[in-house]
């Protein structure tokens, strides 16, 4: 019996094509397997590295320290200063011991300073007759007017009819003050006392002068008592 084959069903002609196709599929499958394995290993390695890095970061993170609470300062209260111990004066007969244990001797303590007495300038005695005589302020006319207005006639001398001149000597200082009043010759009846009183109440005179400088000088004034 003869086998009849259909030429359209003959697969021998596709044998090499199928062989190469199978080889290609096998090669592609093998390469794919290797690529997937390598990708898986790389992915696992990357995951492992990320985990290590994450762990390192977690371990390296510094712990947050809680801020210390500042305790409030106690209020400052002003206290009175302690009184200093009394300081005793050093004894002048002994030395003073300092902090370096060296003996320092001191002399006597001066409690007061004795100053020599101030000698006033010598006062010159009054001049009897200076170059320029002392004068009542306003001159002789003013002097007579003063005596007429201020001299009081004593009633006893008036009753007894006593009248005359009383001579009064006094000193006019270099500043014009009147001092050392003395009656040289009186008439009694209270006239002497009245004359001293009116001279003592006189205002300051213009002092006498010697060589252009004011000096103390004597002056004698006659005061007349006359009944009308």
Produce a short descriptive summary:
Strand 1 and strand 2 form a beta hairpin.
Which labels suit this protein?
228 residues, 3-stranded antiparallel beta sheet
Model description:
32% of the residues lie in helices and 16% in strands. The protein contains four helices and seven strands. It has a three-stranded antiparallel β-sheet, with helices on one face. β1 and β2 form a beta hairpin. The longest helix has 46 residues, at 15-60. It is rod-shaped, with a radius of gyration of 72 Å. 11% of the residues are buried.
Q: Give me the number of helical elements.
A: 4
Spans where pLDDT lies below 50 across 5 or more residues = 57-61
**N-to-C CA distance:** 225 Å
Largest sheet: 3 strands, antiparallel
Q: Classify the secondary structure makeup into a structural class.
A: alpha+beta
For the biggest β-sheet, the strand order reads: 4-3-7
Average pLDDT, rounded to a whole number, is 76
Shape estimate: rod-shaped
Strand content: 15-25%
> H/E order of the elements?
HEEHHEEHEEE
Query: In total, how many beta strands?
Result: 7
Question: What radius of gyration results from the CA coordinates?
Answer: 72 Å
Share of helix, binned: 25-40%
Write the layout of secondary structure elements.
Blueprint: H1 15-60, E1 96-97, E2 103-104, H2 140-150, H3 155-160, E3 164-172, E4 178-185, H4 191-200, E5 208-210, E6 213-215, E7 217-225
Antiparallel strand pairs: 1-2, 3-4, 3-7, 5-6
